[in-house]
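Module 6 notes. Inverse folding takes a fixed backbone as the condition and produces residue identities as the prediction. Think of it as a translation problem where the source language is geometry and the target language is the twenty amino acids. Below is one complete input and output pair. Work through it position by position during the lab.
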C-alpha cells in the first residue's frame, strides 16, 4: 500500500477512551455518567467513546444517543454473554445479556460492539489443562456462530477481544473457524503479555481481522518479587512502553477491514500509581497524555516508524 494511503487511513481513525476506566466525579449520578464522559470526550478532541454505563431511563438514553450523533461521536459498547449462546458454556442469563447489548447497539447506531471470552483466570485461557488448545478453541465456535447471526440481523459487527485468553494467532484460528463477515477482532495491543506472547506478534496476527481496538502500552521491568520470574509488565502511557504503537497503526491501516474510521480506544493496562498522589488525577493524566500521543501520530509528529 502506498505510504500516502496508509497515512490517510491512519488520519481517518477515531480516537477515544474506555469509559469503564475514566475517572468520574463522585457527584455525577449513575444515569448521567455516559453524558458526562461524552462531554469529556468532546473536550479531549475524541471522536469515539466506549460507554460503560448507559442511562436506565428510556428518555435519557434516547437523548444521549441524539447528543452523540449531533457531536459526531461514535459509540461502542461491550456485549457480554456472546459465549453463553451455544456450546458447552451456554447459559440463558448470559445469552440474554448479549441480546440486550446488541439491541442497545442497534438503537444507538453503533457500528461495532465488543465481547471477550477470557475472564482473567486460567480456566478461560489457553492454560486450561482439561483440554487441548485446539479443543478449547473448537468448543467456542458454536457460540460465536450464533452471535454472528444475532449481530448480522441487527446490522452490527461483533469484535472479539484477545482478553487474557489466547495468543493472537490462536484467536485468528477461532475467527477463521467462525467464518462470518460480522465477527472479527477487538485488538488489544497490550494483552499479549498476559499469555506470555509478544504483543507486537499478536498485532501482526490480528490486524487483518480487526474491527475495533484497545490501544494499550506496557513496559517490561524487573520483578521486585524475589524468587518469581524476573521480568514482569506494567501498563504505561502510550509511547513509553515496549508495544510498537506506530507500527500497529500502520499495520491496521494496511490490513484492517474497518481501517477507515477505525476506533482507537485508549485503555490503561495494569498501572503502577504513585501512592503519594491522587489516583483519579493520575488516571486522568494517563488518558490525556495517551490521547495526545495518538493525536500527534495523526498529525505527522513522531511518525518515524509509520
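Target side of the pair, the amino acids:
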Amino acid at each position: 500500500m502506498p505510504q500516502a494511503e496508509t497515512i490517510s487511513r491512519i488520519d481517518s481513525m477515531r480516537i477515544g477512551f474506555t469509559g469503564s476506566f475514566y475517572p468520574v466525579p463522585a457527584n455525577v449520578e449513575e444515569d448521567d455518567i455516559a453524558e458526562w464522559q461524552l462531554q469529556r470526550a468532546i473536550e479531549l478532541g475524541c471522536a469515539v467513546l466506549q460507554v460503560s454505563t448507559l442511562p436506565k431511563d428510556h428518555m435519557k438514553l434516547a437523548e444521549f444517543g441524539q447528543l452523540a450523533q449531533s457531536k459526531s461521536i461514535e459509540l461502542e459498547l461491550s456485549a457480554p454473554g456472546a459465549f453463553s449462546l451455544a456450546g458447552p458454556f451456554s447459559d440463558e442469563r448470559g445469552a440474554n445479556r448479549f441480546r440486550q447489548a446488541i439491541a442497545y447497539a442497534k438503537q444507538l447506531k453503533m457500528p461495532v460492539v465488543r465481547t471477550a471470552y477470557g475472564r482473567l483466570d486460567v480456566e478461560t485461557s489457553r492454560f486450561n489443562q482439561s483440554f487441548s488448545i485446539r479443543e478449547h478453541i473448537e468448543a467456542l465456535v458454536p457460540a460465536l456462530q450464533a452471535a454472528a447471526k444475532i449481530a448480522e440481523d441487527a446490522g452490527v459487527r461483533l469484535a472479539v477481544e484477545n482478553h487474557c485468553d489466547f495468543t493472537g494467532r490462536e484467536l485468528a484460528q477461532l475467527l477463521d473457524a467462525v467464518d462470518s463477515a460480522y465477527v472479527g477482532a477487538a485488538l488489544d495491543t497490550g494483552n499479549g503479555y498476559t499469555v506470555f506472547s509478544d504483543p507486537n506478534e499478536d498485532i501482526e496476527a490480528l490486524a487483518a481481522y480487526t474491527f475495533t481496538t484497545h490501544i494499550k502500552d506496557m513496559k517490561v521491568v524487573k520483578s521486585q518479587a524475589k524468587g518469581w520470574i524476573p521480568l514482569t509488565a506494567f501498563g504505561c502511557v502510550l509511547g513509553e512502553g515496549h508495544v510498537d504503537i506506530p507500527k500497529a497503526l500502520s499495520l491496521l491501516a494496511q490490513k484492517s477491514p474497518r481501517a477507515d474510521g477505525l476506533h482507537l480506544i485508549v485503555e490503561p493496562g495494569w498501572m503502577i500509581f504513585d501512592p503519594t498522589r491522587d489516583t483519579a488525577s493520575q488516571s486522568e493524566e494517563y488518558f490525556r497524555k495517551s490521547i495526545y500521543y495518538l493525536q500527534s501520530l495523526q498529525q505527522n509528529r513522531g511518525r518515524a516508524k509509520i
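Reference fact for the lab report: DSSP finds nine helices and ten strands in the chain.
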